[in-house]
Automatic annotation (TrEMBL):
Organism in which the protein naturally occurs: Streptomyces noursei
Residue stretches making up the MobA/VirD2-like nuclease domain: 73-165
Compositional bias annotation for Low complexity: 292-301
Designated name of the protein: Mobilization protein
Region (Disordered): 169-195, 276-301, 542-575
Amino acid sequence: MIPRIHKRGKRTLGLLYYLYGPGTHEEHVDPHLVASWDHQAPDPGRHPGATYKDLQRLLDQPLDNIDPADRPAKHVWHLSVRNAFEDRILTDEEWGDIARRMVAAAGIDDPDEGAGCRWAAVRHADDHVHIVATLVREDGYKPDLNHDAARVQAQARVLEAEMGLRRLNKGDGTAAQRPTSAERHKARRQGRERTAREALREAVRRAVAGALSEEELFDRLAAAGLLIRKRVAPSGDLLGYKVALPDDLNKDGEPVFYPGARLAPDLSLPRIRERWSASGDGDDQGAPLADRASSVAASGPAAARRRTASATWQALVVIEHSDDAVAAAHIASAGEVLDALAATSAAHTRADLRDAALAFERASRSHVRAERGRDRALRQAARELVRGGPALGRGEDGATTAMAIDMLFFFITAAIHWHAKRGHAQQAAAARQAAEHLRAAYQAAAAQPLGALHQRGRHLNRPLLQRQTEVLRQALPDLAEQILAEPGWYALAATLTDVQAAGFDPTSLLSEAAGHRELDTADSVSDVLVWRLRRRADLPAGTSDMVGAERRAQRSTSHARRQAPGQTGRRPGRL
């Protein structure tokens, strides 16, 4: 339930004409009164002979009880209360009760006082109601409306629980501005899936992901097909920007422009510049971002995804052990990584990754001001994803996508805990939604590469499979039986074979991979260990032909079995 207090007005009659009228886009259906201050107000929508003027006179009558000089300059108070799309349709009686409790919570009318303001609640759609009130009480005094917005929000949370409606978290003022009713109706009329504001927000976020300069940002926005207007000072300095969709026009046939700050708080030009100003400071990741990205672009999307997995893994430690400002920067940069990954994803993961990025957008902002600079590795990963280009979704591209998503899932799980500990309810809820979308994207991305590894594992000869079972029991005695019972065990066995063939000690590397991070949130422990091992050993993530490696591992096992007791024949592990 979303209560919204609109700007105060001067003309009660004008607001009534709108509420009882057809609406800007013919969206108002059967406008009628559901409640009023005295339960007897005339209803121009249902009562024959009742007029808008009759209702307006009654609402504004208390104004005549005070001197004109004491009347409020803007005496019309307007509140709308809207339910979520998935909520049940409420009856008029239920909406009337909601209206009475909302005006009482706001300080407009209190039945116990007996001298409240006059008000009326009009319903013209299934999912919301409008309340109009005159800001002078019956006794001539003005109501106390300090913190009225906070009070109606608190009442909405109580009503949600009592009426079984979708329960929203308390806002903190960092959310992006919601589309207006007019924008939503315009989108439906034009057959758009989303409003122009929402489409522009996503386009700008993708353009910002990994960008290093104003020139690069505006080049990306232009390449995305957006119209751009820049606000320039007399000195020639750039002060801000606006963007528009070419086919989103106003009544005069002109494009509708939105400033970056109106799309989201962190998309204003000064906030975007904060990312650039710190992009060369505060860490020891090596070459400058632009230099490293140029080499990665030539390597393609698989290399970019592999680096994304590594950068995300390293960032996990940061958000758990660094101060809040640094952790907030990494969480914000993870939003850039998700935007870049969604923009370059293959068709079978595109929708889920896009939904994950859109959900996490809310989790990437809080009142903790991000300290930019030490988040450079994640911003670099986002840049490399963009410059690496679209992934094909198969082979090494698809497998490294699954690897990157797996690491991002653990990062976002850590972000959920970080926000929850600090009381960021909306951000934690948004991160949970993002995690669910990532889970679905992972299942789509991992099916083919893990399936291929599974088949390889099933075809290992018996002595080699027994050897990998021994490795598992030795490295993870507490988890061995659970992993052996999982369908992913054969993929893990094939990966352990590759680890051994690459010259690593599989027992020690497996123990390290399991102990480095928690595994409680994993649907399949064996799947998680596959990606951790392949990343740590720098093994091909995809379905590349590993028959040669298997044969080397099999020969190594046969040789070990022929050796004298006490000799393992294994190479020393290396990291």
